[in-house]
Automatic annotation (TrEMBL):
Pfam family, one: Aldo_ket_red
Organism (species): Leifsonia shinshuensis
PANTHER family: 2,5-DIKETO-D-GLUCONIC ACID REDUCTASE, NADP-DEPENDENT OXIDOREDUCTASE DOMAIN-CONTAINING PROTEIN
UniProt keywords, alphabetically: NADP, Oxidoreductase
Single GO molecular function: oxidoreductase activity, acting on the CH-OH group of donors, NAD or NADP as acceptor
Taxon lineage: Bacteria, Bacillati, Actinomycetota, Actinomycetes, Micrococcales
Enzyme Commission number: 1.1.1.346
Protein's UniProt name: 2,5-diketo-D-gluconate reductase A
């Protein structure tokens, strides 16, 4: 089993640096995917209301035989439920679907700034944290100006900011802001939905280390200090994505990967969703 590093959060909890994402895995396939991941050694599963597979995530954790307190589970409130009372209702529904008493991390999935409800949503998360039902709370897809508004109007700094982050979009400014304010940066779409893996530069680095391009990118994420949640429903890839602790990228590799930055997103700009 891989010895996955634990990253300290600003609230005293810790999160496994490498996790397993279940976005776009159909609910009918999610139990088996979660079982495969936990059997391989993952101890961090990332889901969301929007993914429509929370029930299967909870079932996979239970069937695995791994004690609940050894599996870090994240879920999220979808932007259409942003708002104080609606967020509390969404959280209750997520817990019921998961079949858990608590979640390890609860995130605002998108700020949806045009609706101007993310501050009151954050106040609901502060309550859930105070009640102990969400052990840690954070945000996803927050630009720096969204984080600055939370800092100005509320009393709790997010533990995590989960953003789209890959070699095309390394998010240097967001990572720097997060680091300066004690927020852990977590990468979703860490492989740019697989599209970045065809780059010959990554193929060359992979050949040099005797690994796959996906392993190179996941290793790059870890060396940047990010928490990273690659997703796959293929057992071989699930296991391969975890096998990234037997090599290290050198300064030449990191400099080469830095040249891939283009600003291209695979998802929406957070200011434009909703």
């Amino acid at each position: 089993m891989a010895n996955i590093p634990l990253v300290s959060l600003n609230d005293g909890n810790r999160i496994p640096q490498l996790g397993f994402g279940v976005y776009k895995i159909p609910e009918a396939e999610t139990v088996d995917a979660v079982l495969t991941a936990l059997e391989a050694g993952y101890r961090h599963i990332d889901t969301a209301t929007f993914y429509e597979n929370e029930r299967a995530v909870g079932e996979g954790v239970r069937r695995s035989g791994v004690p609940r307190d050894e599996v870090f589970v994240t879920t999220k409130v979808w932007w259409t439920d942003n708002g104080y009372d609606s967020t509390l209702r969404s959280f209750d529904a997520s817990l019921e679907r998961l079949g858990f008493d608590t979640v390890d991390l609860f995130l605002i999935h998108w700020p949806a700034p045009k609706h101007d409800r993310y501050v009151e949503t954050w106040r609901a998360l502060e309550r859930l944290k105070a009640e102990g039902r969400a052990r840690s709370i954070g945000v996803a897809n927050f630009h720096i100006h969204h984080l600055e508004r939370l800092a100005a109007e509320t009393g709790t700094v997010p533990a995590v900011n989960q953003v789209e982050l890959h070699p095309w979009l390394p998010q240097a400014e967001v990572r720097a802001y997060d680091a300066a304010h004690g927020i852990v940066t977590e990468a979703w779409s860490p492989l740019a939905r697989g599209r970045v893996l065809d780059d010959p530069l990554l193929a060359g680095i992979a050949a040099k280390h005797g690994v796959t391009p996906a392993q190179v990118v996941i290793r790059w994420q870890l060396q940047l200090g990010n928490v990273v949640i690659p997703k796959s429903s293929t057992p071989q890839r699930i296991r391969s994505n975890l096998d990234v602790f037997g090599f290290e990228l050198d300064t030449d590799d990191l400099a080469a990967i830095a040249t891939l930055e283009s600003g291209e997103r695979t998802g929406k700009d957070p200011d434009h969703l909703g």
